[in-house]
Write a structure and sequence with these properties.
InterPro entries: Acyl_CoA_acyltransferase (IPR016181), Bact_Acetyltransf (IPR050832), GNAT_dom (IPR000182)
Order of helices and strands: EHHHEEEHEHEEE
Keywords: Acyltransferase, Transferase
Organism: Pseudomonas cremoricolorata
Radius of gyration: 14 Å
Strand content: 25-35%
CATH topology of one domain: Aminopeptidase
GO molecular function, one term: acyltransferase activity, transferring groups other than amino-acyl groups
Number of helices: 5
Number of strands: 8
Protein name: GNAT family acetyltransferase
Distance between the termini: 34 Å
Length: about 140
């Protein structure tokens, strides 16, 4: 496996890759309705792509209020620290922009992943797109 790198993505130029990853993870695997996956925040968000070589394998977005979302890694690359590398890049960019605290809504099964990155749970469990979530914050 090549070294994983993360770069800032352009919503217009990188749209096909961002959509391919999010549709594979959220729409196809997790059955999130497409109308819930795509929203107006995508236009103004800072997007990220994780790449193996030149092939995009993960994505995430950062909103102007410090909210991190749509963190997704293609199935074949999970368990290889791609998510860690991706999130470290998003957190670093948020800090560079002075966006503290960082917030996210995590799928409950992923809370320990985010806790390793310094996030802590700040809400009760709730359903989002039919999937159990909790809100998390990193100060």
């Amino acid at each position: 496996m090549n070294k994983i790198r993360v770069r800032l993505a352009d919503w217009q130029q990188d749209n096909a890759d961002i959509r391919r990853i999010r549709e594979a993870v959220f729409v196809a695997e997790q059955q999130v309705p497409p109308e819930l996956e795509w929203d107006a925040d995508d236009q103004s968000a800072v997007h990220f792509l994780a790449l193996e070589g030149d092939y995009p394998i993960g994505t995430a977005r950062l909103l102007a209020d410090g909210t991190i979302g749509r963190v997704s890694v293609l199935k074949d690359w999970r368990g290889l620290k791609v998510g860690d590398t991706l999130m470290q890049a998003v957190i670093a960019e948020a800090q560079r922009r002075g966006l503290t605290p960082q917030r996210l809504s995590a799928q409950v099964h992923a809370t320990s992943f985010y806790e390793r990155l310094g996030f802590h749970v700040v809400s009760e469990e709730f359903l989002e797109a039919g999937i159990p979530h909790v809100d998390m914050v990193r100060d």
